[in-house]
Amino acid sequence: MAAENKTALFRELLSDARDFYLPTEVRELEDNPSPLCFLREHVMTNVPLVIRGGVKHWPAVEKWSDEYLCETLGDKTVTVSMTPNGYADAPVGEKFVLPHEEQMKMSDFLKMLNNHNSKDVVYIQKQNSSFTDEFHQLVPDAASEISWTSEAFGSTPDAINFWMGGNRSITSTHKDPYENLYCVVRGSKTFTLYPPLTLPFMPYQMFSLAKYVRRCEGVYDIVDEKTVDESRDDNDIDEVVERVKHEGKVHKDETVENNEQKNDPGNDIKTGEEPLKSSACSIPKVPWIACNPLKYDARYQTFFDNSRPLVVTLQAGDVLYLPSLWFHHVQQTNSTIAVNFWYDMNYDAKYVYFKFLEKLSQPRLSSLVS
Length: 370
Description:
The protein is about 25% helix and about 30% strand. It is built from 11 helices and 21 strands. It has a 9-stranded mixed β-sheet. Pfam families: Cupin_8. This is JmjC domain-containing protein.
């Protein structure tokens, strides 16, 4: 089938979805829905929902001040992501760059977060159920599950994560294979959402996997992930890739040269003190969405012409149900805290249709090995 014919069909598919079931704005409720209503009207239809004040009863909403966190966790060592620009897990030039990570006391993290003159952007974003692991002392102030959600899904959460950062921390556009209940405890977060049927118009590109290595305040190298630790084996690479939020598969066999990095102007970022040897080395490749949906770029005209995002802002105590496979970009205000609950999605007809659409519209993604 000719490319222009496929594009026309993709547009028609998205148009039909908008006509029949996709909302023009995110539905809002003032009370938690019953498990049956939630399952029937949102999970089965795969459409988002906001519950205003859904977790306002949590003690955390009132208690989690910096003073309380310092008193409760001040000497505890936590994992902190650090970048020069606030974009952790995001494209920079031709590379997909993971954040620099440091272990530090919670009290030191709070000092860095509140130092608005700092050239480092710090963010607590470790996944793999960080809330019940590194931050388990805070669980009594919140919850280990949301009862009506667990009843609807028929399971407990796969993971519960703790997030804390300032307004310079931005989450690049991606999707997750999870049913996500996102609860803002402090501050506010703005989600820009795109339904899964936007997939054909998402400007995916292949990026070499790299990471930031901090040299001093505000100064970072961008180092190919394979060269950060030459002893790292493929199992270690898989662990690193988990932080890519399951967005796509990773190709470990592609050979690339260590070309000069093209960086955004104004960032004090270098690509390493010394270039790699002239011989090519194996560097994992990551598929990721190349554009910032909030900044028009003529190179991605097709995306901007065909996308109609839903934008919603959560305040302290609000809950967002973010359905599986929905693309989302996230911004936040100063010193925002959130807890989210990941429930594994059902790999049913919805998933099969999505993978079929992926094969038709993004064949490079489907051809990669897991």
